[in-house]
Design goal:
Layout (H helix, E strand, L loop, with lengths): L1 H13 L1 H27 L7 E6 L7 H8 L7 E7 L7 H10 L4 E6 L8 H12 L4 E4 L4 E2 L4 H6 L7 E10 L5 H25 L9 E4 H6 L12 H10 L4 E11 L6 H18 L1 H6 L5 H11 L3 H26 L12 H15 L4 E4 L2 E6 L2 E4 L2
């Protein structure tokens, strides 16, 4: 009797990830059905002067083409500001080349942040915001590549005074290894559906680092980047602090491209481990709750607890069907990304890796970023001894 009760309890708990996947499917379908129409409705004719802000450090893969894509915007009035640590940085000659080859664009390169901060990227953003000529700001990473309509799409929702920030999805420019395909499947099947569930349940209270559109006024209202320069996950915090002011953070059904900066499974593992360790410190209960979104181990536990054909078909078959459907809705239908179907076989591999990363994150007291180890103490980054 006790054994049967424990088994049924385990089978009930093992069904929770499937419930989560169904909620994620509903949230994803609803988002992509409604968001495009809403965006188009609000986007006509609003093109204020814009400052594009890019903190840079080192030479990313395909950096010149990434930067050049911002010089080819179908937008009337904008400037591009870069901030680099010093002229010895290998990216500096590339920025000089950019200025020579796009003389029609207003491009400025700032040398040094002038600040002493743990988070060098955020310190550079403090100066970039201060030096920007315009009220409307678009902030993005150095590995980002965009289409000519990018600025118009990102800035348009800010015409609505209720919108305080804008962010969007990102997909790889190209995938040259199975590790990069694995990461893409993880984004489409796991990360983005989680974002859309959060949006459905509580609204968007975050921003995604590859693109944030906002205004100087919205940043200043919470103390600007100076208040974040010793904290991790500045992009998430910018969205949260703007949402806390009562403004909407608009998540667009639009994707930009990023150039993968990892080549090995170890690189990918450490990159994702850094991110999820930061999330564990920022949202400990939410991080713990991720256990109920990990469908693969629960499906296998269900079969181990009651090894019958019916249980295997219901739990393992149901898990695979829901995961494939979710990846197809987000990647194929929503983001119109090519080649998604051929990567579906990586879904269980990603889920196994994600489970391992989640478990390992509980053992981590530090993160490694840009070759330096940091502790997270009371929400702030502290260089590890």
């Amino acid at each position: 009797m006790t054994t049967c009760l424990v088994r049924n309890l385990l089978l009930g708990i093992a069904a929770i990830p499937s419930i989560y996947y169904i909620i994620a499917l509903f949230s994803s379908v609803r988002f992509f059905l409604t968001a495009s129409a809403e965006t188009d409705e609000k986007s006509s004719g609003f093109e204020p002067p814009v400052s594009i802000l890019k903190p840079v450090r080192g030479l990313d893969p395909d950096a010149y083409e990434n930067f050049a894509s911002f010089c080819r915007q179908d937008y009337l009035d904008y400037e591009i500001l870069f901030c680099v640590g010093d002229t010895n940085d290998p990216v500096f000659p590339l920025l000089e080349q950019l200025i020579r080859e796009f003389p029609e664009r207003r491009i400025r390169v700032l040398i040094g942040s002038g600040r002493d901060a743990v988070n060098d990227k955020v310190a550079k953003l403090v100066r970039l915001v201060n030096e920007a000529s315009n009220e409307y700001l678009v902030i993005n990473d150095s590995d980002v590549r965009v289409k000519p309509d990018y600025l118009r799409r990102i800035v348009a929702p800010l015409a609505n005074p209720k919108v305080g920030a804008v962010t969007c999805f990102y997909v790889p420019t190209e995938e040259t290894s199975w590790v990069q395909r694995l990461q893409d499947v993880g984004m489409l099947s796991d990360f983005y559906p989680g974002i859309l569930v959060a949006k459905q349940l509580d609204g968007v209270k975050f921003a995604l680092g590859p693109t944030i559109g906002t205004t100087r006024t919205r940043l200043q209202a919470f103390g600007g980047y100076a208040s974040l320069e010793n904290r991790p996950a500045d992009d998430l915090l910018v969205g949260r602090l703007i949402a806390d002011q009562g403004y909407e953070v608009a998540l667009l059904p639009y994707s930009i491209s990023t150039v993968p900066d990892y080549q090995s499974l170890r690189d990918l593992f450490l990159k994702r481990l850094r991110w999820i360790t930061v999330m564990r410190h920022m949202r400990p209960w939410g991080h713990l709750g991720l256990i109920f979104t990990l469908g693969l181990p629960w499906a296998l536990l269900a079969v181990a607890a009651h090894p019958t054909l019916g249980v295997a078909a219901s739990y393992v078959g149901g898990y695979l069907a829901l995961r494939i459907a979710l990846t197809a809705v987000v990647g194929v239908w929503g983001l119109r990304q090519s080649g998604v179907w051929v990567k579906m076989a990586f879904i269980p591999v990603w889920d196994a890796l994600a489970c391992l990363i989640w478990l390992v994150s509980f053992t981590r007291k530090s993160i490694r970023w840009r070759g330096q180890d940091y502790l997270i103490h009371k929400g702030e980054l502290v260089p590890a001894p």
